[in-house]
Structure formats: structure tokens, C-alpha cells
Amino acid sequence: MSDRYEIRVAGSGGQGVILAAVIIGQAAALMEEGLNSVQTQAYGPEARGGASKSEVVLAHGEIDYPKAASPHLQVILTQKASDEYAADTQKGGVVILDDFFVQEDPKIDAEIYRLPIVKTARDVIGREIVTNMVALGTVARILEVEGHMKPESIRNTIIASVPKGTEELNCKAFDEGYRLMKEKK
Amino acid sequence: MSDRYEIRVAGSGGQGVILAAVIIGQAAALMEEGLNSVQTQAYGPEARGGASKSEVVLAHGEIDYPKAASPHLQVILTQKASDEYAADTQKGGVVILDDFFVQEDPKIDAEIYRLPIVKTARDVIGREIVTNMVALGTVARILEVEGHMKPESIRNTIIASVPKGTEELNCKAFDEGYRLMKEKK
């Protein structure tokens, strides 16, 4: 990677975007040799309105500024979050949209992918609560293609992070998300 | 509060310090009128060694710099974390130490409290996994005494954040932590 790679996961309150970003940050720093990460969530007046975001910055060197001002990769799970945050995407970056909850494509200069993230959690896995794990699978594929991180680093961090007894369910959701993205890129 | 109040929770990997800080940040922004918060975890070479920290910055205005460079309040759950982080405490700030895992008091100009946080989780609640909720109870008491936040804001955020069916267990741990701190301040 260049010196800095910014990722943002955005959606609504119950979609687990914080845990998704925490897992990316831990995977990067604890499982990938030489990567540092800072993971942030900011709450303000806008958070009271419902769009919630969680960010991770990855770098080989020190990370002075921990916010993702212009993310190279965004996963956006609601229309409201798309309205609020899509325009920040780095020029030429990647935006992954939930194909059900985000109705309109943002008009931005980025690679845009519409994927059935929530639908896969709900209908394939049978538990909407694993939406964030499906999202992590899509992120893992992009990070693999771009040469930043191995999918196994994220998958193993999921296994270490989720409640005992739910590892299989969460990994299945992750694998489905990875597969969805791999069909496109 | 003055314009900015910094909190750090530090310990080892399995102690739930991230969730503790996430809950403080959510409680501040979503339940206290007019408070903003930014919550951060940084991972780097030092994290691979075992001391893990999670930070929250509270302010009435915008938060430009999201890290807690000089925390007004720290909860420190291991000796290693104390060695690494205690010295950063704001002059005259508050440091809460776990009385079992932190053997030595740091030599700093701060109010230092030694409390049986892990022991209470393990022996009173019967589940060491709620260590972070006991820690949150101690934080809630300090924030109440200093006039920054109501304990109910944190308690209600816990109820909204923990897995269904575990609310009572987690709240009991929170209440015990609050009580421990209230005996001292």
C-alpha cells in the first residue's frame, strides 16, 4: 500500500458497524506483519439522526491523523449513510453498497458495487445480526485484491472476537460475503 | 466540563476495554444533551506485546484531535498497562487501578484509587468476563461526581449494547463497580 489506507463502514445503529471496524483494525495490527491501525468512531449531532460510521486507518508507519477523511474503501449499508458519507470516497476508490437498503447509486468517481449484504445475512444465513460479518467478507476480498491483507487475518480475528459457540455462524457469513465480492472482483 | 475531557481504559486483550470505551462514547453522545464524543483504539507494535488501550474524548464542541494524549481519568487493569500508560495521566487527574493485577502504585501527581475490579467480577458476579462492566461502574461514579454524565446514561447504554438475556448480569456488575467507587469518592 501507499503510506495510508482508509476504510469506513457506515450504516444504522443495529448493524454492527463498530465491531466490523474493530475487527479490521485488530486483524491488520495483530495478524499482518508490520501494519499499524487506528480505529475510530465519532458521535455527534448527526449520530442522533441515525447514520452511524466507524473507521479504520491502516499504515506501515505511524498514524498521525486517525480519521478517515477520504476513504479508499467504504461499505455503506443504508441510504441515509450513503447520502451522508459516499461523497467522501477517495477518487478512484471502492464503494460497496447494500443492494436493498441503498436505493440510489451515489454520483461519484469510484468503483461502485451493489451487493445483497443484508439479504444474504437474512436469507442465506438466517440471522440478520450477522450483516456485519457478510460486510467483512466483502472488505476482505477488496483488501486481498489490492494486496493489503490476507482474508485469513480477518477470518481468524472474527473467530477470536465473537461469542463462543457462534464462530461457525459468523464465519459462514464472512465466507458468503467474500464470495459475493469475489464474483465481481 | 471544560472544553475537553479525556478517558482511557487500559488492560490486556481479553478484558473488554474496547467495549467499555465504546459504551462511554455512545452514552455521552446519545444520552447526554449536547455532548460529543470520539472513541479510538490504536494498535501498533506495543499492542502485540499485550497492553491494550481504548480511549474516549468528550466535549461540548467539536473534537479536532481524537486521541487521549493526557487523560483526566484512567482505569488500568494490569501492571503492564500501568507501566505503559499511567504516566500520561493529566496532573491532578484520577487513576483507578485494579487492586490485584496492578501491584505497584505509579508515582504520579493524581488521585489514585485501588479497587477490586477483577475480583468483584469473578467472586461477586461469578463471571470474570464482566470485568469491563465493573470498570464502567467505577467510571460512571467519577463522571457523576465531576458533573459530566449521569450514571443512568451509561447503565442504559449497557442494556442496549449487551447480548439479549445478559442485561441483568451486566447491570449487576456495573452497579457493583459504581458502589465500589462510591465508597471512596
Briefly say what this structure is.
The structure is a homodimer of 185-residue chains. Chain A is an alpha/beta fold. Chain A contains 7 helices and 6 strands.
Quaternary structure state of the chains depicted: homodimer
Give the number of domains of chain A.
Answer: 1
User: How would you describe the shape of chain A?
Assistant: globular
Relevant CATH superfamily of chain A: Pyruvate-ferredoxin oxidoreductase, PFOR, domain III
Name the CATH class of chain A. Answer: Alpha Beta
Low-confidence stretches of chain A: none
Trace the largest sheet of chain A across and list its strands: 2-3-1-4-5-6
What is the fold named in CATH at topology level of chain A?
A: Pyruvate-ferredoxin Oxidoreductase, domain 3
- Would you count the extended β strands of chain A for me? 6
Between the first and last Cα atoms of chain A, what is the distance in angstroms? 18 Å
What structural category characterises the helix and strand content of chain A?
alpha/beta
Largest interface summary: A-B, 24 and 24 residues
The proportion of strand residues of chain A reads 15-25%
Q: Could you tell me the radius of gyration of chain A in angstroms?
A: 15 Å
Spell the H/E element sequence of chain A.
Answer: EHEHEEHEEHHHH
Instruction: Summarize the amount of helix of chain A as a percent range.
Output: 40-55%
Tally the helices of chain A: what do you get? 7
Let me know the average pLDDT of chain A.
Answer: 93
What is the name of the CATH architecture of chain A?
Answer: 3-Layer(aba) Sandwich
